[in-house]
Amino acid sequence: MDELELLKKDWKKATTEYKNYSDADIYPMLHKKSSSIVRTLYYISLAELGFWILISTLPYLFKSKFNEQMAESYKDPWFTTLSVLSFVIIFVFVYLLYASHKAISVTDNAKKLMEKILRTRKVIKYYVIYNLVMIFISIPFSLYLEYNQNMVFHDQIDAFNTKQMFVLYASVTLLTGVCLLLFWLFYKLLYGILLKRLNRNYNELKKLEV
Amino acid sequence: MNKELEHSFVEQLQKHQNIVHKVCRLYTNNADAHNDLFQEITIQLWRAYPKFRGDAKFSTWMYRVGLNTAITLYRKSKRRINTQAFDTVQFKIKAEDYDDTEEQQLKLLYQAVHQLNDIEKALVFLYLEDKDYREISATLGITEVNARVKMNRVKKKLKTILNP
Fold first, then answer.
1. Domains of chain B (ranges plus CATH)?
2. Do B42 and A18 touch (CB under 8 A)?
3. pLDDT per residue over A177-203, tens digit each?
4. Residue B42 to chain A, least CA–CA distance (Å)
5. Which of A127, A134, A175, B90 is the most buried (most CB within 10 A)?
């Protein structure tokens, strides 16, 4: 006999052998906390969003000197535009995250459900990438501004010989590289562990289509 | 939350709980993990319940939520170490229809099914529950043709596991 047929025969017979939960057993279950991957992902997303918003607003709160400089900078229309833009982008990401999280429905088919979960993960990934790019653009950009506006700094740089210039470039590049590597490792590890099973199952379904 | 809703949900779940138990049986290896998964599926069912419309059968709806939870949402807890094989504890064949060869065969079969991956288990589950390919394809989000192809591969894989 076909193996699965034999299994089916037993499968149907086995119905009475499971533990039978009573109503009183089930009620408390409804109010327990879910340990689902979506919930974990949601909290991680919120933490990441919070982290980056904090990183970008913290300097405003603490350094009065920084504030003065900022007040000066805001006179520059370019700077104001960029700041407004960056806040708009934050709100766009918050909205996207909210919308993609809302769209996750356990009653979708398995493939669609996995796609929606992975989309939520992507939104937060893009947000992190956006922040990293902004940081790495702003470092050389602010150095350049400083070079143009701060005469002392300007003279210092101009006095550098080739070797010193090389050291400056090398250290900036190295620092950037190390930071990127650390972030990359952190995310690989975090999402790699969290979504290992989901990715495997999603690929299994995807594989059928080719 | 609405008490009436809660009451009707618990009543229906209580009646159809075997479906959830069966999903747990395929996807877990021991009693602790079984209970964990049962708990998680119950939460997911309850959360989705307000949107459940009477036009689908409660049991059919449960298949989908149950499998989705097992395949995509459930995270196996690290605390759980396989302490004892669940099959040998809870599913002893009764003395009256004791048949050494068949019992042995079934034991091997269940072990083989446990070696399948999550998607393959889902196919086996729906097959064992007498679902047709239309429903299998709708539940997993693949085409009917692919569901058939996959099912044949699963059967072959089971054969290879059983007769290496």
1. 1-89 (1.10.1740.10), 92-164 (1.10.10.10)
2. no
3. 888 888 888 888 888 888 888 999 999
4. 7
5. A127
